[in-house]
Amino acid sequence: xxxxxxxxxxxxxxxxxxxxxxxxxxxxxxxxxxxxxxxxxxxxxxxxxxxxxxxxxxxxxxxxxxxxxxxxxxxxxxxxxxxxxxxxx
Length: 89
Hints:
The protein is an alpha+beta fold. It has helices at residues 6-11, 13-22, 40-63, 72-86; strands spanning 2-5, 25-29, 32-37. It has 2 domains: 2-38, YefM-like fold; 42-86, no CATH class.
């Protein structure tokens, strides 16, 4: 992964954007890593993978019975508990 300081990325923004199209770029500030920038295509792939993983976890929960049917009554009960827990915040 390419590394670039925030100062260089700012001053040479065109080069920075070009680099991100080829690979993720680690941005540093005062020699500390502060961000990783990726292309839109890479970001969309990461989001799709997170969604797929979430679906797989949900389906696994269904397979082993870790599900609760949501009814109007159960939603109201959960909402009431949430409000009670957060009323003092």
